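Example record used in the benchmark description.
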Amino acid sequence: MTQDNVKLLIKSQQTDIDDPDPYVIELTTDGKILDDGEKVVIKYDEYVEEDSSNVAHTSLTFSKDKPGIVTLSRSGAVQSSCVFSKGERHKMLYTLDVGTIEFGVHTRNLENTIKNKSGNIRMKYDTEVRGSVVRQCDFKITVKS
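Model output (structure tokens):
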């Protein structure tokens, strides 16, 4: 397995259905990319509420033979796991210190161009509660070696 340090550019835009003003996060951070020949894992840390002691360890994982299926997992200050696959709905459990929330996630589009430690993953998806869309999301991560 190879492990390399990479630079990550992350842009996330979230639009609540009842509020047309999107919430946008843009950041550049250091991360790692692991490749065992069959599976690729991109890892990085996120700081929750700009508190350096509240860290969520995030990983995006996909199989090289199925790059259109991406699993996002978080541990630490925030715990969650979800599968993203174009046109499919999956359940996401999102756990904070106050409790666990269950969402439905419908992936509208997923593009994955990661090869040789660089490229992009872009996911457009809706989060749903009880079958109703509550938020539209556009997440893009660019990996640079």
